[in-house]
Design brief:
254 residues; mainly alpha
Length: 254
């Protein structure tokens, strides 16, 4: 199924991926990873505190494991989607601002609170406002980069092969350097047709007992080519000096 193809090509960054392959896998990722995160948040609504903490810990652990397991195929299918529109996978660096944005915003906020703690109310408020303005700038840069990458994933792929491989929408396309298998149906049909052409007019059934069969000529030819049995020399000794250890008594026919 097209939705699970990125899992089969788990860490394959070469080749191309169509829009349907990419977005179906993104849907699967959202359902699986987002569902586990939603279950962890919903577990906090349990009135029993210990049960709520246990449920949250369990589902949050599932969320972390799924997010970690699907991280590599997610980046791999994104690289192949960029290849499909004839773009290099280096465009994935647009994800960097969004990945480091939470860390930068946390450092900015902590620095503002620390610097504003030792000054008056006016200085502390100004530091916090300046920190929030920096956070908004970081979020704007990260959002712009993610928007550019999002639009690129929506673009249609190039028709026909490009520098990254054959068109994934072509059912007869094969990756570069690959060959058809030994038991490919089309390949076997071609080999059978060639064998029939080579043996046309030369095939003679050996055991064909039906009407008009050609078994008799074939059998006659086989019998004529067979070596005739040698006549027994009754005066010859019945032992072979090169094999028998001693001469036996008597002769043949005596």
């Amino acid at each position: 199924m097209l939705m699970f193809r990125p899992l089969l090509r788990y860490a394959v960054f070469s080749g191309r991926a169509s829009r349907s392959e990419y977005w179906l896998f993104m849907l699967l990722y959202a359902v699986v990873v987002g569902g586990s995160l939603g279950m962890s948040i919903a577990a906090l609504g349990n009135p029993d505190g210990s049960a709520a903490f246990s449920g949250f810990t369990r589902w949050f652990g599932v969320f972390c494991l799924l997010a970690l397991a699907l991280c590599l195929p997610t980046y791999a299918v994104l690289a192949r989607r960029l290849h499909d529109i004839d773009k290099s996978a280096w465009w994935m660096l647009l994800l960097a601002p969004g990945m480091f944005a939470p860390v930068l915003m946390s450092q900015t906020l902590v620095g503002a609170v620390t610097s504003g703690a030792g000054v008056g109310d006016g200085g502390g408020g100004a530091a916090i406002v300046q920190a929030f303005s920096r956070m908004m700038m970081i979020m704007a840069v990260a959002g712009l980069c993610n928007l550019i990458l999002f639009i690129m994933t929506l673009l249609p792929g190039t028709r026909g092969p490009n520098r990254f491989g054959p068109d994934p929408r072509d059912p007869d396309a094969m990756p570069e350097g690959s060959t058809r298998g030994l038991y490919d149906d089309d390949h076997m049909d071609t080999l059978i047709a060639e064998a029939k052409r080579e043996r046309a007019g030369e095939y003679k059934p050996v055991f064909d007992f039906g009407p008009g069969g050609d078994a008799a000529p074939a059998l006659a030819e086989t019998a004529a080519s067979a070596e005739a049995p040698r006549a027994v020399e009754w005066g010859r000794p019945a032992w072979d000096p090169g094999i028998a250890p001693s001469r036996p008594f008597g002769r043949r026919g005596s």
